[in-house]
Amino acid sequence: MITNNIFLRRNLILLFSIIFFISGCSNKPNIDLCDGDIIFQTSKSKQSEALELATHSKITHMGIIFLKNNESIVLEAVQPVKLTKLNDWIKRGDGGKYTVKRLTNADSLLTPAILNDMRTYGLSFLGKNYDKFFEWTDDRMYCSELVYKIYKHSLNIEIGSLQRLQDFDLSDPIVKQLMQERYGNNFPYDEIVISPISMFNSGLLKTIYSNQ
């Protein structure tokens, strides 16, 4: 029964990715969005302030864009991993500010076959819990981890640089309090992480639109 359920789930994800999405680009006011574009914003979540302080950046949340019937949908790791309409995603951010970036050589690399693989792989995480502990596993996901792993899996491209938790600025009291609440006295200093700002600053991406 368990094996049959897993097989059925995998086939539903594949069918969903084929029927639900149409590859291509979507024309929006002043923006030309395409499958695989990466979108960044400043989150208004509880942990955003601590993340800003630890990374010295306002970029605290991100997702990957896919198109459904010419409408832009954001696949994002929140609680849980889910699909969000672009306008709803933008409204959740601080001041409605956001930036869209694209792989510099997307025209040659993001073929229909690759995009289908990215969708299928990304959608396999739907419903996964948000990873507030920032662990480098597939059991739970945080926002930058999800997008990083999609590109790594489908294109073997590493967008941004992996770091350790100890590489961030953990000195601010707000950051210390959050870390204490989550880890107690067992802080995983050596845990591998990828931050939104590291991906934002990647030389592999070019800016398509920004109002930040």
Overall pLDDT level? 90
Apparent shape: globular
| Rg from alpha-carbon coordinates | 17 Å
Order of helical and strand elements: HEEEHEEEHEHHHEHEHE
Residue fraction in strands: 15-25%
Largest sheet: 6 strands, antiparallel
Under CATH, the homologous superfamily reads endopeptidase domain like (from Nostoc punctiforme)
What CATH first level would be assigned? Alpha Beta
CATH topology: endopeptidase fold (from Nostoc punctiforme)
Q: Widest sheet: strand order?
A: 6-5-4-3-7-10
The second-level CATH architecture is Alpha-Beta Complex
Structural class: alpha+beta
Number of DSSP E strands: 10
| Tally of domains | 1
Taking pLDDT < 50 over at least 5 consecutive residues as the criterion, the unreliable ranges are none
Helix content: 25-40%
Cα distance, first to last residue? 50 Å
Q: Figure out the total of helices.
A: 8
